[in-house]
Structure formats: C-alpha cells, structure tokens
Amino acid sequence: MKTNNYTALAKEAFDEAAPLHWKANKLLREKLASQDYNCLSVLHQTELKTIGVKGRDIAQFNCNNGRETISIKKMGAATAVGFDISSAFIEQANELAKSVETDCEFICTDIYEIDETFNEKFDLLIITSGALCFMPDLKEYIKVARRVLRKGGVLNIYDCHPIVDMFEMDRDRGDKPLQFVRSYFDKTPISHTSGLDYVGGTTYDAKEIFYFHYTMADIINEIINAGFQVTNLKETAEDLSQAYTKVAADPITPPLSFMVTAAKQ
Question: Domains in the chain and their CATH numbers?
C-alpha cells in the first residue's frame, strides 16, 4: 500500500474518533484557560525550557486537538503552528485556541504534503506521543521535519518507547499477566479496528488504521541521516500514551517513553 493510502485511512479513523475525545475531554477547555496549566509533562517542559521557547517560532506535527501547541504558545513562543491530517481535530484545535484566547495557527494537511511556504519557517519542531506509530514512512517524515526547520533549528521528539509495541495495551490485556506478544524487530504494519479512543478508553467497531513499528535505532539513524546532530537522548518511565498504566505502576518497569533532541546542521 502506498504512503498516501495509509494516511488517507488514518484521516478517516481520526475524524471518526474526534467526537469521542471531545466528550472525554470536558474539562480541557477550563484547564487550558488557566495560565498556570500546561498539558506537557514536567520533564518535557524542562527540556523545552532548556532548548529555548520564548520568542521562537514553534511547530508541532500531528498536533491532534492542539492542546500541546497551545501549551507551548503559553510558554512564550512568538508563533505556534500545529499540523494534523484530521479536519475534525483541527476544528477542535481552533475552537480550543479561540476559547482560551491563545493565538495559534492550525493547518489541516497530510504531514508528508506540508506546503513549501513553511520551508525553513520554524526554530523548533515538537513531535509528541502517538505520532510516529501512525506514519508509514519514517525517512520521509524526518525529511519534512528538516525541511520546515531553519538552519540550527531544533527537532524535539517525546514519544512512546518502541519497546511498548512488544506488549498489549491495558484495554486489550485485561487481567492477563504482562507478556511479550510481538517481536521488537517485526516491522509488519498492524491493522487496527478497535478504535482510537485512548482518552476515554472505550473500544468500538472502528474504521481501519495501521500502526507502524520503528526501533530506537531506526528513529535515531533516520534523524542523523537527515542531517541532524543528536544533542540529547533520554529514556523514561512516563506512560505518555496512558495505555500501559499497569506496567507504569509496577516498580520493575521497562522504558515507556523516550525523548530525543537534535539540531539541524
């Protein structure tokens, strides 16, 4: 299947899931309206402050409903632009930004097809949880990241650790003991039809979407090969997806997330 066929399926699946997320996020608007509230984890906020956000032009790929883009703008960014393929989520993002009086721009587009007018427009690009696993071509995705950044611009990814793909999510595992269900090196795309309501935790007969697994080596090497210099790599026990809360609660836990920061050369 071609890349645009996969992303077209993803658009339909996320448009379908958007109303469920909105329903489950009833308090999000109130929270974002508070100047003190930031939906990013403390660890991520600390990294972004170290990189430098104030006065800079910031972008986010796969921005979903825009809550993270809005949070970054509130940290003092000069401009903040979120890109996402789902028109339903972009609509939510615009509504959220307007309701909390935060000046952000949200663009509905396939990430692989971001318009060339955004070339070298940004100082910092953020990619967060649940982005990479839905992108069928990692190499081209990172190339687009490089394209939109200015020279010396910074790419910051904070996403689920690739190792979690070896386990079942909480909602699928139920009361079964934790066990490996997939090889770390299996790159076969996975068809998924039980829904994308990772906010409310419900399942439903959903439109098909595909998950893509990349190893840590895949991710780091594509970043390096695209012309970035990796400046920092962290592995953490934070369950960014909230899909592995039982694993996160265990004192013996694998890495559940990773953060990589890299500068465009």
Answer: 3-264 (3.40.50.150)
